[in-house]
Amino acid sequence: MDYIENGSMSQYLKSNYNELDLYDKLSLLRYILQGLKDIHNKGFVHKDLHSGNILNYNKTNCYITDLGLCKPVDDQDEKKIHGVLPYVAPEVLRGKTYTKSADIYSFGILACEILSGLPPYHNLPHDEFLTLKICQGLRPKFNNVKVPLLLENLIDQCLDANPLNRPSADQLSNIVFNWWSEVFYKKDTEFYKQCNEAEKFNNSMTSTSLNISSPSYTTHPQAIYTSRLLDYKNLPEPQNSKEINDQFYAKYSGIYFFEIIFLF
């Protein structure tokens, strides 16, 4: 930690998000995937991947750290679930075996955080209600940030309720590296075009309208971003649900959380 001046990813985004363009964000995703690919190819799973465990070396380079829960894939003796709730895959929350695909889900949440600049579910208590909604299909939003459709679709695959539908770290690493190259070399590709359109839109927005650096951005006192024991019972089978997301965010917009409880 003494040699990483920028600290964790969560700290870095909080202080420097408005200085990052889509190319920078792709670079960060690329380095995270390279590290995750190396872990998986060695036969391990991380089991605690979140923005507090990513260290930012500089604007476009970062490293995965804190391998305290890292275990061989076939070592599944521990029955208790530890982690940071928003990053934990829904099947793991229900007590299923932790697999490489669960790390991919965590990466998908990380990608949303890097692209939006907002910690996942920062304005909600990280409790049984949120756990229930995650299993029912709730996923983080990009806020008002425009994201290339191809990248958005890839993140959706990472966050699929069925772990078998999630891509591998190898596949993700190759895809994101190719996209990064297309942007770097300004190739005439569909992703580069989408990236340019998204960048123009994002540049037209102010930090206030993005609600990232403005004073109105606050973290709920019960939003917990450190690893802890997660013990929730009788959760439903994980599912994908556009309806749950549309309903939740439509009702949530402009009102406080305690009002949402009554709406549901």
Structure, described:
With 264 residues, this protein is mainly alpha-helical. It has a single domain (75-263), classed as Transferase(Phosphotransferase), domain 1 (Orthogonal Bundle), CATH 1.10.510. It is 46% helix and 7% strand. It has eleven helices and six strands. The protein has a two-stranded antiparallel sheet. It is globular.
| Name of the level-1 CATH class | Mainly Alpha
Per the principal axes of the C-alpha atoms, what is the gross shape? Answer: globular
What CATH calls the topology is Transferase(Phosphotransferase), domain 1
**CATH architecture, please?**
Orthogonal Bundle
The largest pleated sheet is described as: 2 strands, antiparallel
Backbone CA Rg: 18 Å
* Low-pLDDT sequence parts: 255-264
Mean pLDDT: 88
Structurally, the number of domains stands at: 1
SSE arrangement, N to C: HHEEEEEHHHHHHHEHH
The number of E-state strands comes to: 6
As a percent range, the share of helical residues equals 40-55%
Largest beta sheet: strand ordering: 1-4
